[in-house]
Amino acid sequence: MKPFIPIFVAATAGFASAFTPSFSNAQIMMRSRSNDANALQYSKSICTFDETDFAGKTGDWPYTSADLNRIDNSVDTVFYDTPRFVTHIDDAAIDSLTKFYSEEFSSLNKDKLDVLDLCSSWISHLPQDVSYGKVVGVGMNKAELEANKQLTDYFVQDMNTNPNLSQFEDNSFDVICNVVSVDYLTKPLEIFQEMHRILRPGGISLMSFSNRCFPTKAIAMWLQADDIGRLTIVGSYYNYSADWKAIEALDIKEKVPVPERPNTAEIMKNPSLGLAWMTAAGAVQKNNGGDPMYVVKGVK
Fold first, then answer.
1. How many Cα atoms occupy the beta-carbon half-sphere of 282 within 13 Å?
2. Which residue in 61, 88, 239, 277 has a CA-CA distance of 20 to 30 Å to 195?
3. CB of 232 closer than 8 Å to CB of 9
C-alpha cells in the first residue's frame, strides 16, 4: 500500500497478529478512484492489499477459535430454519450494490457469466442487464432459495458445518458473490480456499457487507472491529487462503450530491424555490445517511 492516513480499529489478539506492525497500527492508505480513467462509476477504492501488509504468508492462519467464536454457537440450521423474506440492507444500499455488480460484470468482457451466490437467499441483487450462463445459489433455507428467480440451480448447505464446495469442479465460475454474510463465517479459511479453487483464472470474488448483522451469529472479532477493521479482516482471509492476484477494499455506496441552495434574493422572489430545495436536500441526506456498503474484491 502507498500513501496512507492513520485510522484506529478495535482488534482481537488474532487480528493484531495477522498484520505487519505498521499495518496493525491501522495505517491504511485511503485513495479515491475519481481521477482514474479506468475507475468504475459506482465505487471508490479505499485500499489495496499486498503480501507486505500481512505478518504471515499464504497458508498461515493467525486467527484462533476465540476470534471466530460467537455468542450463539448453536448450529445455524436452527437459526435459519424459518424463511426470512426481507432485505437486510436499505434500498439505496441495494441499488448501489446492483449498479456495482453491473459495472464489475461488464468489465469481465464475457458473453455469458457463470455466477455463484454464496450464503444466498430469496434475492441475489444481480443486475438484469447482464447475460448469464448458470447462476447457482448456496444457502441455508430451501424456501428462500426456491423463491429466488435469478438462480438456475441451488444447494442447501450450512457452510459453517461443511465448507467444502466439492459439488463444483475447479475453474467453474466467473464470479462469486456473498452479500452481508461474510461476518457469520466460522470457517473462512476453508471457504476462501474453495472459492479460489472454483473461480476461473481472472474471475472475481465480491464479498459485500454493511454495518448491520445478527450480533449473536457474527464472529467475535467482527463485533469488536469498526468498518475499516472489517475490511482488513476480509482482506486477510484472501491473503492467508490462497494466491490471489489482487485484493482491494471498496466503498460502493452511491453518494448523491446535495443540491445548491438558492440565495436569499431568489427565495424572496420565489418562496417555492426554498421549499423545493429543502425537500430535495432532505431526500439526499436520507439517501447518503443510510446503510453504508463495502466490498472486498479478490481477483484470481
1. 6
2. 88
3. yes
The cell numbers describing 60, all together, are: 498461515
Q: Find out whether 72 and 220 touch, Cβ atoms under 8 Å.
A: no
DSSP symbol at 184: G
Residue 101 DSSP SS3:
helix
The segments of the chain whose pLDDT lies below 50 read: 1-10, 24-40
Does residue 258 contact residue 284 with C-beta atoms inside 8 Å? yes
**How far is residue 250's CA from residue 136's CA, in Å, rounded to a whole number?**
25
Burial of 41 (0-12, 13-18, 19+ CB in 10 A): exposed
pLDDT for 162-203, tens place per residue?
999 999 999 999 999 999 999 999 999 999 999 999 999 999
Element holding 153 (H helix, E strand): strand 153-156
* DSSP-assigned beta bridge partners for residue 60: 58
Global pTM reads 0.80
To which H or E segment does residue 268 belong?
A: helix 264-269
For residue 293, what are the CA distances in angstroms to 73, 94, 146, 288?
A: 27, 9, 26, 11
Q: Is 241 helix (H, G, I), strand (E, B) or coil?
A: helix
CB 192 within 8 A of CB 63: no
**Separation of first and last alpha carbons in the chain:** 19
Considering Cα of 112, then 114, then 119, then 122, what sign does the dihedral take? positive
